[in-house]
Batch of 2 targets.
Target 1
Amino acid sequence: MGESGSGKSTLLNILAMLDKPTRGQVYLNGVDTATIKNSRASSFRREKLGFVFQDFNLLDTLSVKDNILLPLVLSRRPITEMMKKLVVTAENLGINQLQEKYPYEISGGQKQRVAVARAIITEPEILLADEPTGALDSKSSAALLDVFDEINERGQTILMVTHSTAAASRAKRVLFIKDGILYNQIYRGDKTERQMFQEISDTLTVMASEVN
């Protein structure tokens, strides 16, 4: 969390190897990303990382099913494997009935579920989510966060950038960034969601009141 321009999305881009750090090192699963050549970076992203964006980034010319399958198609996975993964992923996210529809035929909340399905169908080691609830109403946002809770409980690591205190209060750990520097962090521990919400709100208030 942090104000606009604090470096949140830049950090995600660095983790995704779309940008390079000006100093320091970034390790993903023990691999220094600086050692990964550009020719390998694209396949590394497909295999190790999943992405969820505020604006969904779905292709309107493809059906929901084909949007979800796209990362597996690009990785040239066997068709039988793709179909098995599609069945499980669509079932887990409750979007089986949407598979033959197109993105322009479904709601914003449904689009984001499709985007999540596309992101996790490759079983990535890390799911990177940049303001995933930013374009959703409160009901759809809560439903998406429930999905994140479910896949996190199944062992999926999620790194989410958000301006939403409600969304952040669902996390197990919250990092606050100010001017590109780690300002503070909060661990959930045995705190309730309400307690997390209050602690996050208090931290953001202090950050906003401080003069750079």
Target 2
Amino acid sequence: MSVEKHELDAEDFSAKRLAVRVGRVFFKARNYGGLPLFLVMLGVFSLEYENDAVTWPLGVALILAGESTRIWAMRHIGRSARTRKDKARRLVTTGPYAYTRNPLYIGNHLTLAGFCVLSELLWFLPVALGLAFIFYSCIVMYEEDLLRQRFGEEFSEYVSGIPRWVSFRHVLRTFDCSPWLEALRRERSTLYGLAVAVALFVLKEIVSHN
């Protein structure tokens, strides 16, 4: 029995090490990981759900929710943002990091879902989110490995109380209304990109109806 348990532990360790190695590769390409999905959403015109009264309000709302989540995280990360966890100088545990260990990636999932809805390719939504979850899960494994090496017991205590993805444990905690202007300034390149992306989907909608 102990031999079987040892073999299972060894297999689990090997799987984690593989995920960390894959995550290291994905981490370096994380700014471009969503590009193939975006090109599919922008370039495919078949099997669209034609209901602008639903897709546009919902899509824009999801995009705004995703970017708001990212800006909230940026507000607490500080100048070490965008996001070099391989060079992290301090462990961030405030703001959204008091609820989830990966608010930036949750924001990315919401934004991706928004663009899927805007593209009217609702059938592609579970595919895109599934691939994104695998992509970011590997990155998270790599980042957590680095953070555990850098911060040791402090990170272990943080992990024990905060889930990797979503938690509602502290939802009723007083919301921090600290100034967000600096966070908005650091996130301006993403905001510009989102504006251009929405404009492209508007263009796609115009072309598809002509």
